[in-house]
Amino acid sequence: MSETPPNTLQYRFDGPEEAPVLILGPSLGTTWHMWDRQIPELTKQWRVFRFDLPGHGGAPAYQAGSVGELTTRLLATLEGLGVQRFGYAGCALGGAVGIELALRHPERLASLALIAASPRFGTADEFRQRGVIVRTNGLDPIARTAPERWFTGGFAAAQPAITEWAVQMVRTTDPGCYIASCEALASFDVRPELGRVGVPTLVLVGSDDQVTGPAEARTLVAGIPDARLAVVPGASHLVPVEQPAAVTDLLVRHFSTAWQPAFETSTGQNALPPAALKPVLSPAPPQPLQTGPVAEIAPAAVPPQAQGRPDPYDAGLKVRREVLGDAHVDRALAQADEFSGDFQEFITRYAWGEIWDRPGLDRRTRSCVTLTALVAGGHLDELAFHTRAALRNGLTPGEIKEVLLQAAVYCGVPAANSAFKVAQQVIREETTPQG
After folding, report:
1. Which residues of 188-209 are buried (b: 16+ CB within 10 A; e: fewer)?
2. Helix, strand, coil percent content, the chain, rounded in steps of 5
3. Could you tell me if 105 and 97 are in contact, meaning their C-beta atoms sit under 8 angstroms apart?
């Protein structure tokens, strides 16, 4: 644990060594201590494995920017410990890891519990905006508002020590790893794939959760074939902390009664799931399993390039959304008509799919170049949304200021003066903490 490699996670075990392994996954901004109240009861039947997210709870700050990468690190940690099969319960981001395990590595899971989880956590814009705030103001604004997101008002008022513990837990997280975890949640969307989850699943949610509440829980239950719903009254997002006895009882009952036996093997290798656990294929061809955005455009709609290269439209749309935000792109596409639609397709395919997606420059550098060019051309409307994009791409307000000062020398003071006014307003809007 003191020398955690970059490809693994900081962890701890509790419970008897001979017992089956049950993994507990944490929420964004928390540590494995969020599960402390469950440990005494769970360790009567299971060897409980807890882990910290990168940069959380003193864990090494090796950033992981996707749920898939977090899952890979978890599996690498388990491989090193000789743990092949396990039950898994995860809260929020930890729940996303559980869904990823069920979809990509079903042979490893005996049973699954998803707590305060969702197949898609809000919108990508919300989490990338949170990253902008942390990059500009540090974690203190997020830490101060954590109790109102995690707990009901009555609990926070009655338990000041736990409330302060929550604030300090967030405040001591590595900012870069927190931002990377926000990016992981921003890009997570498995709504079309829920039907392939073939492990017995408990979906557990607090009745007063305003982050991922009962509506998101019901989406999971409706999509996962063998899923049951449990709503815990009087609890918000961090339900294992707020209602520990109820959550412990539900987990014990679920994992005691819905522990799927291991698949039969004859070669010493992990066997494929038996047919009953495989998804039932519809007459239409299934979507291919691949990394990247969930397809919103039919694959057949894009004609092949004459040179045999893949069409850059889909990649361009993904980059365009990541840089400018879903709201901006949705608005631009919705306003397109017969007259302007070809132009929207053109800039998505070539500006975003061909140029912004090239590996030669990172997105921070491309934002610097873009801001300078927009100042030189006097394109203030585009400067506004590219200032937002620069913040999302990792530039700080101070770095944007330096770009505009440099532009003042080479593009002219009047152009830079107008640019400063636009950028100042955008930065105020984007970096002011909410609440």
Report:
1. bbbeebbebbbbbbbbbbbebb
2. 55, 10, 35
3. no
Confidence of residue 310 (pLDDT cuts 50, 70, 90): confident
Q: How many CB atoms lie within 10 A of CB 12?
A: 11
pLDDT tens-digit profile of 79-110?
Answer: 999 999 999 999 999 999 999 999 999 999 99
Separation between Cα atoms, residue 39 and residue 22, nearest integer Å: 11
Which tokens go with 190?
């498995």
pLDDT at position 264 is 55
More confident residue, 365 or 288: 365
Q: In residues, how long is the chain?
A: 435
Q: Which two structure tokens, joined as six digits, stand for 91?
A: 């809260």
The C-alpha atoms of residue 299 and residue 317 are separated, in whole angstroms, by: 13
Report residue 177 as tokens: 């790893």
**434 CB-near residues (< 8 Å, 6+ apart):** 133, 145
CB 388 within 8 A of CB 325: yes
